[in-house]
Amino acid sequence: GGPQGAQCPCMPPALLSPPDAEKTPGYWNKGARRRLELALALQPAAQRAKNIILFVGDGMGLSTMSAARIYKGQLSGGSGEESILAMETFPHMALAKVSGAVPGGTVLLPLPEIPLGPSCFQTYTIDRQVPDSAGTGTAYLCGVKANAKTLGLSAAAVYGKCRTTFGNEVDSILHRARLAGKSVGIVTTTRVQHASPGAAYAHSASRSWYADANMPKEALRDGCTDIAYQLVHNTDINVILGGGRMYMTPKWTPDPEYPEDPDQNGTRRDGRDLIAEWLSAKQGARYVWDKKGLDAVKDDSVSHLMGLFEPKDMRYELNRNTSTDPSIVEMTEKAIRILRRNPNGFFLFVEVGHIPHAGGRIDHGHHSGRAKQALMEAVMLDRAVARAGELTSPSDTLTVVTADHSHVFTFGGNTPRGNSIFGLAPKKAKDKRAYTSILYGNGPGYSIRDGGRPAASLPAAEDRDYRQQAAVPLEMETHSGEDVVMLAQGPMAHLFHGVQEQHYIAHAMAYAACLEPYATEPGCRAARRASHGSQCSPQPLLALLALCMAALVVGG
């Protein structure tokens, strides 16, 4: 192998000795006491939520979060391990099962007198031990477990069978929030017709029915519609930001950004221009397709905004053209500034994924075995969480961060403090060859050369498109079935506790915001009065009237 000094200059060298302060017991005792005092002061915020923001890191399992935390710290010039993600400052935590079941499928919302502990969420689908993004999206957005590859349908629906759609539709919390008078939005780095955002508005027996051109003739004949069509016609969504232009326009329609590339043309066979239909149906609506157009939109000038920035999925953050494509942080900020004008509040769904053509861009990065791409997407999601916190208040906004599933991604190898998260383990393997700290259980990183595994080396392992080695050869790396974390702050955040089924997420959010089926629960009437009162509160007028009456009495 080459010399150890060949580390990428953008990463700090391994920290050979910890800071002097860390060597004293007082350092750790003081820090623990401070955290203990914060824990003792923590009280449940029992008021109802006016706004809800749900952040989903597609494929962002615990190992991805831990590695992203280190990467974030190293990007800032630190050793990384001591770094803290913005989402990790949230006071309430739970785990979601991606595999397992509750007897009878009952959702039990905790009563105030029941002590709430940490929580875990289980992400399996009805028919799969290890889930996909469609089944999980239906769970955490619609509140029911479903079959893999189906969107917005109960498990009575069968994948790919159009006729099983009808009568088995389930409504998402986004749809219910809109019916309750809130503004709603979707922000994603994937195509907006992708499985995760699609579960917020579509009812489809196949997650792959992006446009009518992607549907079998039998499904069209039986009356099913594609996901792009449903995006425009199912729910009145105020803000739609992501990729997916080609599914919205007629076949052969040139793409505005890539007019010379026929592979980016529109794909619709029915001749419909869904963007034009959406614009004509919404008063005060705007459509943009690049960052310049998004930046030009005045927050107070539009009621509806659609921004589609790529023909399919948006680019990885490390590949993004910062002059033409907005970041997830910029899209999130624009959405919040528009949605928060509604005095009744809003619901916003924000997704960052990790792999090409399967999930969000975190999901995409992992599926392709490119850990650096995946971890940068996770860091960007955390930056969006931080920016959302600056634009909202935990007094009236419930913010939830979770993942739909995890990946067979890990890092280890007894690496020293401060080692680049993408660096090499300090000792060679039994085959006398170097290996990276990050490895995959399966995927395209599997390789055999000259009868053995090729040695990993620097600086190649630091490249953004470097594929970490995998144990089992697959065209694409797979999801994993372990539980995923849920982090929450704001009104009713204490409902996120313990080990839960993933569909509980939608119920806890609906309960917190007094949405169906919890709209008549105790406290909801007062919450609605307070929300409407924010438009034109009668309290100042009543106070003025009382003063006038008192003056008349004294004067008399």
Protein described:
This protein is of the alpha/beta class. The protein has 15 helices and 16 strands. The chain has helices spanning 25-41, 62-75, 133-142, 173-179, 195-198, 217-221, 227-233, 274-281, 291-296, 328-339, 361-367, 371-391, 504-512, 524-533, 539-555, and strands at 51-57, 92-97, 119-122, 183-191, 239-243, 285-288, 304-308, 346-352, 397-403, 406-407, 409-411, 438-443, 470-473, 479-480, 484-489, 498-501. It has an 11-stranded mixed β-sheet with strand order 3-16-2-15-9-1-8-4-5-7-6, sandwiched between helices. A 3-stranded mixed β-sheet has the order 11-12-13. A two-stranded antiparallel sheet has the order 10-14. It is globular. Residues 1-12, 100-108, 110-118, 354-360 and 534-556 have low confidence and may be disordered. The active site is at 133 (phosphoserine intermediate).
Global geometry:
globular
CATH superfamily of the largest domain: Alkaline Phosphatase, subunit A
Average pLDDT number: 88
Strand order of the largest sheet: 3-16-2-15-9-1-8-4-5-7-6
Uncertain runs: 1-12, 100-108, 110-118, 354-360, 534-556
**Helix percentage:** 25-40%
CATH class of the largest domain: Alpha Beta
Number of helices: 15
Q: Could you say what the CATH topology of the largest domain is called?
A: Alkaline Phosphatase, subunit A
Précis, in short:
By secondary structure, the protein is α/β, with parallel strands linked by helices. 28% of the residues lie in helices and 15% in strands.
Secondary structure layout plus pairing:
Layout: H1 25-41, E1 51-57, H2 62-75, E2 92-97, E3 119-122, H3 133-142, H4 173-179, E4 183-191, H5 195-198, H6 217-221, H7 227-233, E5 239-243, H8 274-281, E6 285-288, H9 291-296, E7 304-308, H10 328-339, E8 346-352, H11 361-367, H12 371-391, E9 397-403, E10 406-407, E11 409-411, E12 438-443, E13 470-473, E14 479-480, E15 484-489, E16 498-501, H13 504-512, H14 524-533, H15 539-555
Parallel strand pairs: 1-8, 1-9, 2-16, 3-16, 4-5, 4-8, 5-7, 6-7, 12-13
Antiparallel strand pairs: 2-15, 9-15, 10-14, 11-12
